[in-house]
From TrEMBL:
It holds the Pfam family Thioredoxin_8. PANTHER family: NHL REPEAT-CONTAINING PROTEIN 2. Coiled coil: none annotated. Residues 8-153 form the Thioredoxin domain. This is Thioredoxin-like domain-containing protein. Gene3D superfamilies: Glutaredoxin, TolB, C-terminal domain. InterPro entries: 6-blade_b-propeller_TolB-like, NHL2_NHL_rpt_dom, Thioredoxin-like_fold, Thioredoxin-like_sf, Thioredoxin_domain. It comes from the Bacteria.
Length: 612
């Protein structure tokens, strides 16, 4: 490696790491000076964000492979108010198996110091303490590996690399029957089937919702079928109708979230089979065709429900709903364009934001959806999606009242009741809320991250209280008190907005292919750029889809603030390969902006290529 290496040019010293405190360090503070000689990877994340969770899983093999030269540090930069709570962050670190050091940065000071603009953002600091790379989004593991290899070669030659594992102090979890359960299902015999996510298994509980009957799964993270199955953070559960179960050969569909699979469970034997998903994460193109269910790629299926004669899947990882037919063994897209935002209408045009909970109304006419990142509750009826409560990606709180004014905070579960009302597991508010007659009320609060709701045959409501590691039964009379009005505090995300000038703005999307790749136009234009805004009036012109990655936008001087939604993708192929592989890189940004006369007139965004 020569002295004119690009990794040695125009270097910027990495800002010192400061925050409220550290996790997984045994109580000590870390400083960049302590890590001199190591390659440091800073992962700016927030625990609500599905893309951030994807990155945690992508980094695990990288951390193991380079354990003697690479130190990963999570910098927690919260979106929601609940995520600023230190105890909630500590729980999330355990829940998602994060075993590298994590800096708690509730005021997002490090986010600003390192000029992050999206969740997640990865920043690489070299052994001499200089920033050498920044990249937003997921899918960068292979590119990071190549960068680490290059940094190792360079700094070994310079004598500035220090090898040896860094010790981390990961606390031992408390021993509880359930550990961060995610979803539950009432079984015909009165028992409950629970997705015991952090225990990587399913737990069957007796009718008292406390006594363990059996456990399905070894407890090891994996994807093995059979009578000793393995899961990876299982989520939603759907009981098939008897006729479908008889043909399919299993009774329950399980959303095996981190494996990007759907699994089938035969209740009589506990046998598990994979019924949908290739095991690879979806990074394709949008189509609404039917596909072989075992050939399609999925992306973090979070919940499942029987609706419209099939299993509907809340595909949280790509902001869509999919369908799965257990009889025909086919699957495909059901609703959503993959744009992360809030827009109603025909199902192939709607925008969603990490749908995480599903419930079919007892009459079968409506499918209710907890759209978590928009803090919204929505429903589908007659091929159209509607919003019952919720205002957008960055508006949330705990406010009761008329549904069009009420606020939720990252709900993960919904339950449609026979009286036409809907209960909401309002997760980050620690509450159960109710929508009825156009009003939102609080039924009960003081819960620890409720993530799902179950209605028993006897009419009892069971809450999956994930943060308390249990199922709880709502007391007698609780539902009768649902009309109590609870005043609350409104919040907006404190993510710093980008200041832009009214009038013409140059959107400059810079694409950097992964090493060894080039743009591929074999099947048409290699790039695609889609721009929209919330509210739509923010953009006088410049919205829509083009193949060019540079576009002039015109911002309205009459709309003071909003969110620009930018979705970009680029097709590449390998250079100088006998059988070149093709790759598709895709990233979406929701950029909160404020329009001010002295704002910037250029908005640069970087799309970095990835290996498939």
């Amino acid at each position: 490696m020569t002295a004119d290496s690009p990794l040695l040019k125009a270097r910027v010293r990495a800002p010192e790491l400061r925050g409220r405190g550290w996790l997984n360090t045994g109580g000590r503070d870390l400083h960049l000076s302590d890590l001199r000689g190591k390659i440091v990877l800073l992962d700016f994340w927030t625990f609500c964000c599905i893309n951030c969770l994807h990155v945690l899983d992508e980094l695990r093999p990288l951390e193991e492979r380079y354990s003697d030269v690479l130190v990963t540090i999570g910098v927690h930069s919260p979106k929601f108010e609940h995520e600023k709570d230190a105890a909630a962050l500590a729980a999330a670190v355990e829940r998602y198996g994060v075993d590298h050091p994590v800096l708690d940065d509730p005021e997002m000071l490090m986010w600003q110091q390192y000029a992050a603009k999206a969740w997640p953002t990865l920043t690489v600091v070299d052994p001499e303490g200089y920033v050498v790379a920044n990249m937003a989004g997921e899918g960068h593991a292979e590119g990071l590996a190549r960068l680490v290899d290059e940094l190792v070669r360079l700094h070994e030659a310079r004598g500035t690399l220090r090898r040896g594992d860094e010790a981390h102090a990961v606390p031992n979890p408390d021993l509880t029957l359930l550990r961060f359960p995610s979803k539950a299902l009432a079984l015909p015999d009165g028992h409950f089937l629970v997705s015991d996510a952090t225990h990587q298994s399913l737990a069957e509980l007796a009718a008292d919702n406390e006594t363990l009957v059996r456990r399905i799964g070894t407890g090891r993270r994996g994807r093995k079928d059979g009578t000793e199955p393995e899961f990876s953070e299982p989520g939603g559960l759907c009981l098939l109708p008897p006729h479908a179960a008889e043909i399919a050969g299993y009774d329950v569909v399980v959303a095996d979230t981190v494996n990007h699979l759907l699994r089938g469970l035969r209740l009589s034997t506990g046998e598990v089979t994979t019924v949908a998903g290739s095991g690879s994460q979806w990074r394709g193109t949008v189509d609404f065709e039917a596909h072989d269910s075992l050939a399609v790629d999925l992306s973090s299926p979070w919940d499942v429900a029987w609706f419209d004669g099939k299993v509907v899947v809340a595909m949280a990882g790509i902001h869509q709903l999919w369908w799965f037919d257990p009889v025909k063994r086919t699957a495909g897209m059901y609703a959503g364009t993959t744009v992360e935002a809030l827009k109603d209408g025909p199902l192939d045009e709607v925008w969603m934001a990490q749908p995480s909970g599903l419930s079919t109304s007892p009459d079968g006419r409506r499918l209710w959806i907890a759209d978590s990142e928009s803090s919204a509750v929505r429903w589908i009826e007659d091929g159209e999606m509607h919003t019952a409560a919720g205002q957008g990606l960055f508006d949330f709180g705990h406010v009761d009242g008329p549904a069009d004014q009420a606020l939720l905070q990252h709900p993960l579960g919904v339950l449609a009741l026979p009286d036409g009302s809907v209960l909401i597991a309002d997760t980050y508010n620690g509450a159960v809320r109710r929508i009825a007659a156009g009003q939102v009320t609080t039924v009960v609060d003081g819960l620890q991250e409720p993530s799902d709701l179950v209605l028993t045959a006897e009419g009892d409501v069971i809450v999956v209280e994930s943060g308390a590691h249990r199922l709880v039964r709502l007391g007698a009379g609780t539902l009768a008190a649902a009309g109590i009005d609870v005043s609350g505090v409104r919040h907006r995300t404190e993510r710093p907005p980008t200041l832009l000038s009214p009038g013409e703005i140059e959107l400059d999307l810079i694409f950097e292919p992964a090493p060894g790749q080039k743009l591929d136009e074999s099947f048409g234009p290699s790039t695609r750029l889609e721009v929209s805004a919330s509210p739509p009036e923010l953009l006088i012109s410049g919205s829509g889809v083009t193949t060019a990655l540079r576009r002039t936008l015109v911002l309205s001087p009459d709309v003071p603030a909003g969110v620009l939604q930018v979705v970009a993708q680029a097709a590449t192929c390998d250079i100088d390969a006998e059988f070149p592989a093709c790759h598709l890189t895709r990233q979406d940004w929701g950029v909160p902006i404020r329009v001010e006369p002295d704002g910037a007139t250029r908005l640069p965004l970087i799309l970095r290529g990835m290996d498939a």
